[in-house]
Design goal:
The complex is a heterodimer. Chain A is of the alpha/beta class. Chain A has a single domain (19-321), classed as Thiamin diphosphate (ThDP)-binding fold, Pyr/PP domains (Rossmann fold, 3-Layer(aba) Sandwich). Chain A contains eleven helices and eight strands. Chain A has a six-stranded parallel beta sheet, with helices on both faces. Chain A has a two-stranded antiparallel ribbon with strand order 5-6. In chain A, helix 4 (92-99) packs across helix 11 (302-325). Chain A is globular, with a radius of gyration of 20 Å. Chain B is of the alpha/beta class. In chain B, the strands form three sheets. Chain B has a seven-stranded mixed beta sheet with strand order 3-2-4-5-7-6-12, sandwiched between helices. Chain B has a five-stranded mixed beta sheet with strand order 9-11-10-13-14, with helices on both faces. In chain B, helix 1 (6-20) runs parallel beside helix 7 (151-163). Chain B has two domains: 2-183, Rossmann fold; 196-324, Rossmann fold. Chain B has twelve helices and 14 strands. The chains are: A alpha/beta, B alpha/beta. At the A-B interface, helix 5 and helix 6 of A face helix 3, helix 4 and helix 5 of B.
Chain lengths: 342, 327
């Protein structure tokens, strides 16, 4: 067996955040966590079907990156997409309704857990196969550059954030798209959520160079390693990358070291990861850590944080009611959406 | 009227549409500086610049997915497959994302893109460069599949494909690029979903497409001398099939022969026969016959290659046999 990569000693970034910004991040992380907990409950109660991949533990990455974007920027995700969609602004009720297969779902009940889309929120998807979202995200980034440089639209400075996991970085589309993004200086962030495991394949067993951020260098692209359990650190790295992209200076590869607190999907018995490993990462829970940070830096009081949690719990409960009460798609619409009508 | 080679008809279509709509752009291998392997994009790089005629690295699946993302966000990409066979490497992006994403997104996104290039069996190009992917792709929901066959329809169909809001697989044939035809000076568009009645007749319906249209036309010359009057239909749209035109012809002739260049197993003809049985079984006076390529990798050897695809004499004989069985 290969030696497991040791976690680097991360330097805490200087605190440059207002109370208001801190609470936006906190609320977004709580929303992601509570939403996924509700999904697990609904799945085990037989109300939700298919493959459901939860994001618990990785919230600092979604919130840290997506809350550094503008609302007209683009987000592209994988099969583990619920929380990216929520951070991008897709309402919890429409995501929950999608998981219930309802007409009010963000993909009209046609997509399901792994195919969340919202053109209104520039949420490009929900891509269920490994790596296939990266070229699509590249296309959105190309489009921004095309509008700016081929069509002369100076306002076309949108950035695309493309999320994927450590397992994807052994796939050709990853390398092909890093190449094109660097070649054409496209405004894109490649965000690797390295949670150490591709289902049962440990990252170190799958790759000859486990330090993914180093793979950027051969493309002449900045590659940055960041503590994916620290939302402030992720945010700092993301803001810098977004600024570079928006300025036309090209892509960045961000490797966020993180961990999923649940199995690969709710169908995964999760028997391969050691208890010691899980406990070590649970002790680094990004939400607890950020709560302590906010209190310690006088950015929020515990009472305020509890208000946030209560508010989000109500939103999740309302989303569930909305999903349950929503209609199924009409059988008459079985063929709807195959083709666009010109 | 101007005499135009087929590859130039395609070039004119792209040029006109790029001039008409600045969201239209071309991408692919050697489409820019080199002008395209069959010169379909010659000089467009100079005219429109490197972003609108984008030379890509050799990364078919990724640049196809990139086109999907560009289409989702409002551009209208035209992918040139240097050889359509190379797009086997892009099967996932074509099937999962170009084909299915509009549906799985519940109509959130439309994907106006064209994937075009040379397909078919050329002259001793070997198995990998002699593929007929139309049959492989026909089961993918959400794709339109079109095959052009003359300079006139090549130009008009490509313009329609570029304007369509859906992904269109647009098959050219590697041996038809130098066909010549007088084209109108005025602008025209040929609808994607209409079959073309090449020759009106009463004895038998011959359904064909792409280069086989020209083999059928040769066979018809012999058949005419023998007093046989076939109706020849160029399918144009391989998906969806134009059953209005096909059905009207079957109701007239009651006999059908399919002549195709794809392989017999799982081919376009196989699907047509199944659909004819569903829709027009009572109209048939004889079982539908199909003449297809052999179910083998296309051999390099010229004689073996000739034996692999359908030849005009075989078409002539098949039609004679069918008419002789007249009830």
């Amino acid at each position: 067996m290969v030696q497991e990569r040791t976690l680097p000693q991360f330097q805490a970034p200087p605190a440059q955040i207002s109370s208001e910004e801190g609470l936006v991040l906190y609320e977004d992380m709580i929303l992601g966590r509570f939403f996924e907990d509700k999904c697990a409950e609904m799945y085990y109660r037989g109300k939700m079907f298919g493959f459901v991949h939860l994001y618990n533990g990785q919230e600092a990455v979604s919130s840290g990156v997506i809350k550094s974007l503008r609302s007209d920027d683009y987000v592209c995700s994988t099969y583990r997409d619920h929380v990216h969609a929520l951070s991008a602004g897709v309402p919890a009720k429409n995501v929950m309704a999608e998981l219930f297969g309802k007409e009010t779902g963000c993909s009209k009940g046609r997509g399901g857990s792994m195919h969340l889309f919202s053109s209104e929120h520039n949420m490009l998807g929900g891509f269920a196969f490994i790596g296939e979202g990266i070229p699509v995200a590249l296309g959105a980034a190309f489009q921004s550059r095309y509008r700016r440089d081929a069509l002369g639209d100076a306002s076309a400075d949108q950035v695309t954030a493309c999320f994927f996991g450590d397992g994807t970085t052994n796939n050709g589309q990853f390398f092909e798209c890093l190449n094109m993004a660097a070649l054409w200086k496209l405004p894109i962030l490649f965000v690797v959520e390295n949670n150490k495991w591709a289902i049962g394949m440990a990252h170190e067993r799958a790759t000859s160079q486990p330090e993914i951020y180093k793979k950027a260098a051969v493309f002449g692209m900045p590659g940055i390693e960041v503590d994916g359990m620290d939302v402030m650190a992720v945010r700092a790295v993301a803001q810098e990358a977004v600024a570079r992209a928006r300025a036309g200076e090209g892509p960045t590869l961000i490797e966020a070291l993180t961990y999923r607190f649940r199995g690969h999907s709710l169908a995964d018995p999760d028997e391969l990861r050691s208890k010691a490993e899980k406990e070590a990462w649970l002790a680094r829970d990004p939400i607890k850590r950020f709560e302590a940070y906010l209190v310690e830096h006088n950015l929020a009081e515990e009472g305020t944080l509890k208000e946030v949690r209560d508010r989000i719990q109500t939103r999740i409960d309302d989303a569930l009611t909305f999903a349950e009460d929503s209609p199924e798609p009409s059988p008459e619409d079985l063929y709807k959406y195959i083709f666009a009508e010109s | 009227m101007a005499e135009t080679l087929l590859f130039n008809a395609l070039r004119e279509a792209i040029d006109e549409e790029m001039g008409r709509d600045d969201t239209v752009f071309v991408l692919g291998e050697d489409v820019g500086v080199y002008g395209g392997s069959y010169k379909v994009t010659k000089d467009l790089y100079e005219k429109y610049g490197e972003l609108r005629v984008l030379d890509t690295p050799i990364a078919e699946n990724s640049f196809t997915g990139m086109a999907v993302g560009a289409a989702m966000t409002g551009l209208r990409p035209i992918i040139e497959g240097m050889n359509m066979g190379f797009l086997l490497l892009a099967f996932n992006q074509i099937a999962n994302n170009a084909g299915m994403l509009r549906y799985t997104s519940g109509g959130n996104y439309k994907i106006p893109m064209v994937i075009r290039g040379p397909g078919g069996v050329g002259r001793q190009l070997g198995a990998e460069h002699s593929q007929r992917l139309e049959a492989y792709f026909q089961a993918v929901p959400g794709l339109k599949i079109v095959a052009c066959s003359t300079p006139y329809n090549a130009k008009g169909l490509l313009k329609a494909a570029i304007r369509d809001d859906n992904p269109v697989l647009f098959f050219e044939h590697v041996l038809l690029y130098n066909l010549k035809e007088d084209l109108p000076n005025h602008e025209y568009v040929v609808p994607l979903d209409k079959a073309e009645v090449v020759r009106s007749g009463k004895d038998v319906t011959i359904l064909t497409y792409s280069r086989m249209r020209h083999h059928v036309t040769q066979a018809v010359k012999g058949l005419e001398k023998k007093g046989i009057d076939p109706e020849v239909i160029d399918l144009i749209s391989l998906k969806p099939l134009d059953f209005d035109t096909i059905g009207a012809s079957i109701k007239k002739t009651h006999r059908v022969i399919i002549v195709e260049e794809c392989m017999k197993t799982g081919g376009i003809g196989a699907e047509i026969i199944a659909s004819i049985n569903d829709r027009y079984f009572d109209e048939l006076d004889a079982p539908v016959v199909r003449l297809s390529s052999q179910d083998i990798p296309t051999p390099y050897n010229g004689k073996l290659e000739t034996l692999t695809i359908v030849q005009p004499k075989q078409i002539e004989a098949a039609v004679e046999n069918m008419v002789a069985l007249k009830v």
